[in-house]
Amino acid sequence: MSRDNERFAHAGDYVLGLLDDDARAEAERDMERDPEFAETVRRLAERMSSLDHTAKPAEVPAGMWDEILGKIATLPQDHGTSPPAQSAANQNSATHTTPWRKLALAASLAAAFGLGYAGGFVMKTVPEPVVLVVLQTPDNTTGAVFEAFADNSVKIIPLADFEVPQDKIMQVWTLYDASVGPVSLGTLSSAEVTTLKGQKLPVPAADQLYEITLEPRPGSPTGKPTGPILVKGFAKRPAG
């Protein structure tokens, strides 16, 4: 796994609230000394926060947001107590880490409330993904994140602005068995958060390949990838 991929996966674990106390504290220290990691956390937290707009309205338990804000308020504050040897770049990172940290925590806390149980409240259970996939572009930057579920539906969270000509379409594939070859999970017209229903396939497994290719509309004429690969990656089990 490339350093960029590792950084993104670690940021994802932080934003989703999957780290224990020690690991979370270490991630917060990483944000203070690694501006690129801090920026990755900020981007992912904003992207996850945007998912709230795709959710159906639900009754909010009394006091939920007060509890979330109370938890955010307990975060350590940065007051310029940087180590003497800290560089100017790191000082700038530390100055801006607190708001990003709060944004990440808000996103993870909101996700925790939405996933069924948090802070003593019981809410409607949402299925959890069986694997997560960080997909890389050909130049090794992170282009998308997939959440794949037991029913083979896939939530696609683009992190790159893919240019799709009018006569083309993005097609999502998975390779669960080399003897079968790539299987299409559906198509995308634009780089927006989308959930594809997929097909009746075996439950997604760790190290399973996923990719997006650029195909002629309305999709690959052969039933297999024919166009250039936009992003690809291998599944991993969620931390926990």
From TrEMBL:
Main location: membrane
Feature: compositional bias, Polar residues: 79-95
Keyword Transmembrane tagged: yes
Keyword terms of this UniProt record: Cell membrane, Membrane, Transmembrane, Transmembrane helix
InterPro entries named among the record's database cross-references: Anti-sigma-K/W_factor (IPR051474), Anti_sigma_zinc_sf (IPR041916), RskA_C (IPR018764)
Name this protein carries in UniProt: Regulator of SigK
PANTHER family membership: ANTI-SIGMA-K FACTOR RSKA (PTHR37461)
